[in-house]
Amino acid sequence: xxxxxxxxxxxxxxxxxxxxxxxxxxxxxxxxxxxxxxxxxxxxxxxxxxxxxxxxxxxxxxxxxxxxxxxxxxxxxxxxxxxxxxxxxxxxxxxxxxxxxxxxxxxxxxxxxxxxxxxxxxxxxxxxxxxxxxxxxxxxxxxxxxxxxxxxxxxxxxxxxxxxxxxxxxxxxxxxxxxxxxxxxxxxxxxxxxxxxxxxxxxxxxxxxxxxxxxxxxxxxxxxxxxxxxxxxxxxxxxxxxxxxxxxxxxxxxxxxxxxxxxxxxxxxxxxxx
Length: 274
Description:
Layout: E1 5-10, E2 15-17, E3 25-27, E4 30-31, H1 46-49, E5 58-63, E6 77-80, H2 91-94, H3 96-104, E7 110-115, H4 124-129, E8 133-138, H5 144-150, H6 156-168, E9 172-180, H7 187-194, E10 200-205, H8 211-223, H9 228-235, H10 241-256, E11 261-263, H11 267-272
Parallel strand pairs: 1-5, 3-6, 6-7, 7-8, 8-9, 9-10, 10-11
Antiparallel strand pairs: 2-3, 4-5
């Protein structure tokens, strides 16, 4: 990304104890993310990092001299990464994620990598050696114009090709349909186009909060005016009917197709049940 503010920072440890459901540790090799997703929940991190720049315009590259304590990770669940994309565009230059993978390759832990970038294929040889690995990639549209309006990550075509390549190399693949935009995300069409090489599907609804709520609602108003009243019903009036109905449709379709899937629509309930 042009004019990205890059800063190198020192961290004492790449490992952070996690409060996420189904995860023991998270590793975030960077602060900030050049994908600049307009709906990104992680933009709240600006409050804790003294960044006043717009989300997506800065990246802090984490340096850590101390090796990862691999004993801590035995039989644990590790997420790479939770508040940034570990394969953001600057990973091509700094290779922080690659260095972390080289340390984790023989650890007896469950490693989940989440990304929107085809850059992950650079590390294919390492990924194939890594034990108990799952890779999740976010896909919430088949319309690359909509994708470009929402993020600066890899194109939809590149993401689907990346998922297929990973699958063909024996890596367990999750298509993370997130965030689902009401009335816009063609969830069934995405499944139909990809089910031949996807091991599991995750579904997550669009949550609007904080500074980006108005941004997304204004985008819908300007680009999909017919949908704007429906979005106000969901996000201003807290009408959950759409999500309840969609959850039932997804359940019925995935069960009919005998697909492995998880619905993450109900964040607070899942967190409480951790």
